[in-house]
Design brief:
single chain; 334 residues; alpha/beta; seven-stranded parallel sheet; three-stranded mixed sheet; binds nicotinamide-adenine-dinucleotide; binds UDP-4-deoxy-4-formamido-beta-L-arabinopyranose
């Protein structure tokens, strides 16, 4: 079985390629290396013993992308490629709509033309917006997104759902990820943030490595046990394994399914900080700041559907997520 992985040298894509290869799939990666490095191909080979086929192609360039479909008999596509920075999407919305929507449409059109009927799409818990009570359930549908990035995820979900309604051969699994963190246990692949990290764990990692003085804790007056925001952090390797299950599901079913991928458990900012302190063995300085605009108090997944349809249940706890993140950060510093 040959799987096209767009964005396959990125953070979640690279871990997913490892799990696909470990499960006997052939992997073809398309990435323009906008937010990742070619070195990741060698790292995947070091971990798995197999070098994935790689095309440095921008999904906005349809001719280049079509060559990949012509040269490979593909069974399915996992579509990670896209921009993902919430704040940046507010500043340059058209760039986000072009890359995440036009790029995706190019891909979906080529899938149709070349009769590739199975798709797994990277959606996000951000599509629930601030409209619903936790735990977030798939049946809630799409909420009010608060930034262009989130809207591109919502629009992709709508486009894919319409495509599936129009074409009964299609099988599409829309995975709504919660907060992926951590890294591969080898320390060879992980998340390398571009500039100042927006996300909590990459920021903590930079405080620990001395690149930043202290963590800004965005608000401690939420209606949560310790007042700081609560999120459903999931180990990126667990998330990668969910993709293997989603591919198996797509290959054996038709139609669209929306599935949350989280642990179902929420941790506060202070709990994550404590877990990271345990992992690195030192105190991590922090300051309580005002709330960050657009943040919600609590976000965690209802995981029943992932368990029922995919047989997927996350294995790693917050301590392991922080240990693996710390190991990767130390390898980067070497
Ligand atoms: P990432 O930036 O590490 O990976 C995305 C990859 O896509 C990068 O390697 C980048 O170079 C590539 N890319 C971007 N635009 C491209 C284009 N036009 N053509 C070809 N390649 C292109 O991000 P990630 O964290 O691995 O996220 C993967 C997917 O999951 C994204 O769609 C993201 O929106 C989604 N997602 C991520 C999170 C998260 O917290 N990391 C949460 C929910 C959903
Ligand atoms: C987590 C918690 C912050 C940084 C974002 C996107 C979402 C998805 C995942 C792609 C919150 C607090 C953070 C810091 C802090 N990505 N925090 N200090 O906002 O839940 O989700 O990433 O789809 O779309 O919005 O993740 O890691 O930014 O924040 O106190 O320096 O940590 O306020 O409570 P978030 P995050």
């Amino acid at each position: 079985m040959k799987i096209l992985v767009t964005g396959g040298t990125g953070y979640i894509g690279s871990h997913t390629c490892v799990e696909l290869i470990n499960n006997g799939y052939e992997v073809v990666i398309v990435d323009n290396l906008n937010n990742s490095s070619i070195d990741v191909i060698d790292k995947i080979q070091q971990i798995t013993g197999i070098k994935p086929v790689f095309y440095q192609v921008d999904i906005l360039e349809k001719d280049g992308l079509e060559k990949v479909f012509e040269e490979n008999q593909l069974n399915a596509v996992i579509h990670f490629a896209g921009y993902k920075a919430v704040g940046e999407s507010v500043a340059i919305p058209l760039t986000y709509y072009e890359n995440n929507i036009s790029g995706s449409i190019n891909l979906y059109q080529l899938m149709k033309k070349h009769h590739v009927n199975n798709l797994v799409f990277s959606s996000s818990a951000t599509v629930y917006g601030d409209d619903f009570d936790v735990p977030f359930k798939e049946e809630y549908g799409l909420g009010t997104t608060t930034n262009p990035y989130g809207t591109t995820k919502k629009m992709n979900e709508m486009i894919i759902t319409d495509m599936c309604k129009a074409d009964s051969d299609l099988s599409c699994v829309l995975l709504r990820y919660f907060n992926p963190i951590g890294a591969h246990e080898s320390g060879l692949i992980g998340e390398i943030p571009n500039g100042i990290p927006n996300n909590l764990v990459p920021y903590i990692a930079q405080v620990v490595s001395g690149q930043r003085e202290y963590l800004n804790v965005w608000g401690n007056d939420y209606n949560t046990p310790d007042g700081t925001g609560v999120r459903d952090y999931i180990h990126v390797v667990d998330l990668a394994r969910a993709h293997v299950k989603a591919i198996e599901y797509a290959l054996n079913h038709k139609g669209t399914e929306v599935i949350n991928i989280g642990t179902g458990k929420g941790y506060s900012v202070m709990e994550v900080l404590k877990a990271y302190e345990k992992a690195c063995g030192k105190e991590i300085p922090y300051r309580i700041m005002n709330r960050r605009p657009g943040d919600i108090a609590v976000c965690y997944a209802d995981t029943e559907k992932a368990e029922r349809l995919l047989g997927f249940k996350a294995e790693y706890d917050i301590d392991r997520m922080c240990e693996d993140s710390y190991r990767f950060t130390r390898m980067l510093d070497k």
